[in-house]
């Protein structure tokens, strides 16, 4: 699997691409200048890095995602649970619930998720 770890600045740039894709690389340079205060060279350097990691592609001047925001978030969540809670979702939920009481709606959502994935 590609390397999906992003620094904070890379994450901001990725969010910009996800929100506008497909986007021309020229338009992306303008957006990055306006929203991130980046120079053209910075935009292309970070874009190249994210393309090398397999998250985006720049084909004929059009930037598109190879990994959706949802897939990226799912991977990050799974990695966090694996690294922090030895891959145990119940340990993660117990730690989460210890700091914040779950609402009835959250409990019902979790139960529905369990029921749908049972078997």
Indicate the CATH architecture of the largest domain.
Orthogonal Bundle
Number of strands: 3
* Strand percentage: 5-15%
Principal-axes geometry comes out as elongated
CATH superfamily of the largest domain: Winged helix-like DNA-binding domain superfamily/Winged helix DNA-binding domain
- List the helices and strands in order: HEHHEEHHH
Secondary-structure-based class equals: mainly alpha
Question: What key attributes describe this structure?
Answer:
about 120 residues, mainly alpha, Arc Repressor Mutant, subunit A, three-stranded antiparallel sheet, 6 helices
Describe this structure in words.
With 119 residues, the protein is mainly alpha-helical. It has two domains: 8-68, Arc Repressor Mutant, subunit A, CATH 1.10.10.10; 70-117, no CATH class. 67% of the residues lie in helices and 8% in strands. It is built from six helices and three strands. It has helices at residues 8-20, 25-36, 40-52, 69-85, 89-99, 104-117, and strands at residues 23-24, 56-59, 62-65. It has a three-stranded antiparallel β-sheet with strand order 1-3-2. Helix 1 (8-20) crosses helix 2 (25-36). The radius of gyration is 18 Å and the shape is elongated.
